[in-house]
């Protein structure tokens, strides 16, 4: 029965009209849920994460707020889509994968696949369990986005985070996704420079008061892509943010496009 449901979702995804892009995105989320696939021996014991950078010798050379797509050989749909944070770091933690298959990591700018990198499959099971390095070098052509910093005032501290965002930005909240009213592509939401899990986004947006928020970085892509219009990076008044180890950039993916 589950196979039939997923097959129906795939057919529906490809048949939706272009002007129903918001519905198409929600269907895409259903098709890329972070659960074990019924079609293969995928699991979450391993995952790709890394840093998009311009210069492997400089810690400040991370490429921020890129849309990054993970695809598996032979699949029509992407496995997952994420963004790099302000340091250029990204992670596909929790996405089921089959280490004995090749994967591709692609950078999306506007409506273009700007670059692709090969994640080679394993021939035999590795002795470790955990993350697999997926660092890559990428130099954007020109400015890809703009950034605005929102800092709450004394009058804002009693508002819930979602109410504050609706007050400051012209957006809608639908099925745990924040959409700009002028676009069918949503915002990707980060908290302290880390992706918010889908199951926690309701709680954070609707139950966290603004007195717990230090600032919000609003990232708007100059040319929105079909996955995201931009990024909201929420900085809390507490908690640590991730750092980047320069040495890990020695292990980089080969570029294939």
Task: Give me a quick take on this structure.
This protein is α+β, with helices and mostly antiparallel strands and 257 residues long. It has helices at 2-15, 21-31, 161-168, 198-207; strands at residues 46-53, 67-72, 80-83, 89-91, 103-109, 112-119, 130-133, 136-137, 145-150, 171-174, 177-180, 187-191, 194-195, 213-221, 230-236. α1 (2-15) packs antiparallel against α2.
Structure description:
The protein is an alpha+beta fold and 257 residues long. Helices cover 17% and strands 31% of the residues. A five-stranded mixed β-sheet has the order 9-14-15-12-13, with no helix packed on it. Strands 1, 4, 7 and 8 form a four-stranded mixed β-sheet that branches. The protein is globular, with a radius of gyration of 19 Å. The relative contact order is 0.18. The model is unreliable at 1-11 and 34-39 (pLDDT under 50).
């Amino acid at each position: 029965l589950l196979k039939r449901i997923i097959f129906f979702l795939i057919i529906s995804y490809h048949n939706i009209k272009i002007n129903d892009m918001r519905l198409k995105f929600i269907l895409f989320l259903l098709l890329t849920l972070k659960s074990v696939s019924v079609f293969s021996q995928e699991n979450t014991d391993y995952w790709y994460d890394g840093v998009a950078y311009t210069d492997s010798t400089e810690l400040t050379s991370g490429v921020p707020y890129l849309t990054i797509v993970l695809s598996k050989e032979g699949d029509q749909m992407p496995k997952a889509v994420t963004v790099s944070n302000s340091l250029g770091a990204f992670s596909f933690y929790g996405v089921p994968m089959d280490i004995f298959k090749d994967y591709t990591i692609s950078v999306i700018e506007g409506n273009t696949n700007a670059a692709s990198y090969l994640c080679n499959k394993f021939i035999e099971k590795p002795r470790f369990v955990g993350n697999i390095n997926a660092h890559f070098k990428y130099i954007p052509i020109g400015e890809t986005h703009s950034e605005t910093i929102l800092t709450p005032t004394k009058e804002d501290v009693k508002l819930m985070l979602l109410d504050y965002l609706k007050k400051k930005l012209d957006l809608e909240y639908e099925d745990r996704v924040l959409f700009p009213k002028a676009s069918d592509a949503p915002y990707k939401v980060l908290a302290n420079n880390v992706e918010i899990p889908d199951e926690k986004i309701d709680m954070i947006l609707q139950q966290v008061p603004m007195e717990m928020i230090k600032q919000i970085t609003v990232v708007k892509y100059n040319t929105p892509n079909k996955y995201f219009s931009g990024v909201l990076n929420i900085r809390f008044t507490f908690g640590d943010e991730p750092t980047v180890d320069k040495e890990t950039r020695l292990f980089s993916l080969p570029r294939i496009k």
